[in-house]
Amino acid sequence: MKGCYPIVKKVSFVTIVSIVLIFSMSLLIYAKEAQIEGENLNVRTGPGTEYDVVTQVNPPENYSILEESGDWAKIQITDEEGWIHKDYFSVIEEVTPTEPEELEQKEAISEQEDVTTEETQSDKTEEINQSGNLTGKRVVIDPGHGGRDVGAIGESNGYESRYTLRTANVMKEILENQGAEVFLTRTRDQYIPLTSRVSFANLHRADVFLSLHYNSTPEFPDVQGIDTFYYSDRDQQLAEYVHQGIISQTEANNRGIDQQDLQVLRTNHRPSLLLELGFISNQTEETHIQSRVYLEAISRGIARGLQAYFR
Fold this sequence. Notes:
The protein has helices at residues 5-31, 100-114, 118-131, 160-177, 194-203, 236-250, 263-266, 283-289, 292-310, and strands at 33-36, 41-44, 53-57, 62-69, 72-77, 80-85, 89-92, 138-143, 181-184, 208-215, 226-230, 254-259, 272-279. By secondary structure, the chain is α/β, with parallel strands linked by helices. It has 2 domains: 4-114, SH3 type barrels; 122-310, Aminopeptidase (3-Layer(aba) Sandwich), CATH 3.40.630.40. The longest helix is centred in the N-terminal third of the chain and has 27 residues, at 5-31. It is globular. It starts with a helix and ends with a helix.
């Protein structure tokens, strides 16, 4: 029987390696984006022209690729899936895939975190409290809207999509100064599907996902203030800390926190919030939002809220 042991170990090793490779490949495929290039491109129920058309897509839209079969790819469209032909889209990497080696390292780190003793966790918490920073925390910031989706339009005709991106860049700088590792779901004015934003957070194993937005009620131009939304009960405390931090730093009108069924929160596996950081339909508030000083105040408030949350 002794001669059998090496064979069993070898088979086990090959099996484990195969599982890791398959898992890594599935992540890489899911991370791809299809940038549509054909007008009124048919989306079908299966990988072939014999399948029924469920909808159509148009450039310059991007969609997550879920699966590939020959010359066809399955994409995610809001709450449904469908197949498109490869001749009519190009593959991009809006959601940056994690390399296999990096994946293994992150898995190892994740396992270490899971088995860390309460004493070690207390030491880490004490270190954060003493230094006042966010060292080691991964934060994904999602500048809402982008590209053809401009979002709300302000009193001065400014686009919400541009305001959220500028806010995200300032916030990234502030949080990185506190030691956080920060990732943006977009770094330029481009359209990205909601599913891709969520995938980005999950792939990066974000400690926190923050989706940035601005509100607008042109019919009620006097309305102003900040709202914070969460979906999962587990994120209520996160919402309270972050919201309180923003209000304390900006002295903006406090519209409170609320539990809302929003896609970027509902489908997210990471602690997540959607922040409505003001009303660009209000002239005074839009002016504040156009000021870097005010954006820094918002960012400091979020940093303080995150510090309290991780404490």
